[in-house]
Structures are given as structure tokens and as C-alpha cells.
Amino acid sequence: MLETPVEELKAPSEVEYKHKPASIPGPVKMDTAGRKYPAKRSFKFAIPHLRFGSGVRFDLANSFKEGEVKWEVEFFYGNSKKIKRLPLNEEVLAATLEYFDYSTREAIQEELYCLEPLFDDFDPSILQKVWCKKLDGLHPFEIIDQLGKVAEKLVARFFTEPSEQLSELAHIILREEVNQKLARYSNLIIAGFIIGSWGNLLIANKQPALYDLARQGRGVPAVPLVLIGIEP
After folding, report:
1. How far is CA 155 from CA 7, 13, 42, 109, 144, in A?
2. Whole-angstrom distance between the N-terminal and C-terminal Cα of the chain?
3. 3-state class of 216 per DSSP?
4. CA-based diameter of the chain, in Å?
5. What mean pLDDT do residues 24-31 have?
6. pLDDT recorded at residue 194
7. Which of 163, 142, 159 has the alpha carbon at shortest distance from 47?
8. Which pLDDT tens digit goes with each residue over 100-155?
9. Which DSSP symbol is given to 221?
């Protein structure tokens, strides 16, 4: 093309010459089958449908203390200057579910029961060995995928839109003043509180305290469903 008058230039489609490399390398396959990872390989990934940008997210992560590995769903929020963390536990689960009437709590928990087979005979050390490619078995990514799917179901069925009432509930649990971002994602955050707390109890091989209450019809009194704008 150098020093060729513009009117004499041809469109690429009109040029007969087609450049081809002298030789084409074969396909390259990444071989990680024999790769070794340290025993304390870290894991921290956001749960699908529960990441909201700028540090506000629900993670599944591992940590180590005195040589023992711990797996936990965590909630992080705040801003770049101050990131806060809320432990997702039985207290958070109870405080969230108490906001709904009995029939809604029962319906929510029915969606959560499908997670139980995933955590049958759950062993944190075995999950760590799978993550380090030392064993075959339940993989951490399988857990976050399933948690994400259940979160998606909860949102679609119970928390389709953020609301002033859900925002109030989120701020009460977090003991925070009104925050626009938390308010904007209040429906997803409430779903995350439930799925994360429930998941942590299953990871710890515990039965959620409200499990039997819902099945036996002994739910604690709650704010009427109509007050939070959710249909059963």
C-alpha cells in the first residue's frame, strides 16, 4: 500500500493474495492434571447472582487457623475506605425469617431443603483437598453454583424487586444507616442473608433452628406478609 495512489487501492475482498503462515502449529492443550497446589491454597469467589460491584458481595471462602481449614459464606459491604463483614449465622437467619409470616417462611425453607444432599457427610478438609487437586469429590465451585441457583429461585419467587420494607430489614440486620446501594439491592441482599446463613449451618453440619419449627407449625410471630409487599 505504500506510495500507492488512493484511487488505485483495492478493497481487501478484491485482492487475490491471501496471506498464510508458512506452518500452522497444532492445538495446544493446557496440562494441569499433575500440577501441585499448596495445602493451604486459598479460595474466595463470589456466589452467582449475589455480587453487586464495588465490594458488595457474598463470597464462599476458606481460611485456616491452627492448621485447620474452615469454609464459610461471607457478606462484604461498605466502600473502598472501609469494607465491613457480616458473619452469616443462625442469628442472621432467624432475624431475617422472622420478618415473614409462617407460610412464607415455610415456603422459603422448602426451596432451601434441596441444598441438604449437597452437604451430606460434608468434610471441610476433604473439600480443601479437592480444591488442591489431591482428591476427587465435591468441588467448591459446585457449592457456589448451587447456592447461586437457590438464590436465583428465592429472588424470582419471593424477592423480585427491592422495596422500602426489605431495605429497612437489611439495614436493621446490618445496624447501618440508610445506604443507597444497600437499598437498591435490598431484595438480593435479603435472599443472600438467607441462603448464606443456611449454607453456613449446613457446612457446619448443623440443622437450622427454624427447620423443625416450620415443619411442625410452631413458627414465631412475624410481621404480616402484606406489610412487606410479598405475595406467598
Report:
1. 61, 51, 30, 13, 16
2. 70
3. helix
4. 88
5. 70
6. 95
7. 142
8. 888 898 899 899 999 999 998 899 999 999 999 999 999 999 999 999 999 999 99
9. P
Instruction: Provide the CB-side half-sphere exposure for 3 (13 A, CA).
Output: 0
**Cell numbers for 26:** 497444532
Say which range, 120-124, 157-161, 167-171, 207-211, has the weakest mean pLDDT.
207-211
**59-68 contacts, C-beta under 8 A, 24 or more apart:** 60/140, 60/143, 60/144, 60/147, 60/199, 62/124, 62/128, 62/131, 62/140, 64/40, 68/124, 68/125
Q: Where are the alpha helices (DSSP H) in the chain?
A: 90-97, 102-112, 124-131, 140-157, 164-174, 180-184, 186-203, 210-216
The residue written with cell numbers 472501609 in the block is: 82
Grid coordinates representing 142? 459446585
CA count, 13 A, side-chain hemisphere, 59: 18
Q: Are strands 68-79 and 82-87 parallel, antiparallel or unpaired?
A: antiparallel
Q: Reduced to 3 states, what is the DSSP secondary structure of residue 228? A: helix
Cell matching residue 187: 431484595
